[in-house]
Write a structure and sequence with these properties.
Radius of gyration: 19 Å
Number of strands: 0
Number of domains: 1
Shape: elongated
CATH architecture: Up-down Bundle
Order of helices and strands: HHHHHH
Helix content: over 70%
Length: 168
Amino acid sequence: MKSIKLTLIIAGSAFLLAGADISKSDQTFAMKAAQGGMAEVQLGQLAVNKASSQKVKDFGQKMVKDHSQANDQLKSIAAKDNISLPSDVSAKDKALMDRLSGLSGSAFDRAYMNAMLKDHQMDVADFQKEADSGTNPDLKNFASTTLPTLKEHLSLAQDTSGSMQASK
């Protein structure tokens, strides 16, 4: 009986410690990536519904598709590695959604694409840092494999924004 209790205590301790090997920087990366990914999906849905430009609508749809897929991958890693992820977007992203919700037409398109430019510049930098110096192999691999898609999003955001400026 004592050996069963001891085994349960050891197993429970191992479960609790499973997330303990996640460095602070890896945990921060996972939290930011989860919040950012959720925000990209919600903002993309907003763009699909509110954008006046078909290019902006298409960009928004791509954000929904690609970031939903990345979010699922991150959730899977988090479950495997016992990493706690947030269940909602950041206050900053909520404020952006509120601001964009109040816009329409070309004003919405410009504000959304400007936000996507800034966001993807930061995302590329954050994911590159994790890919280069992350300590959790699963998060590091996630960052490395997601990085090309984020770079594509950044390039697409630049092109879309540029074509909107040219058509003014």
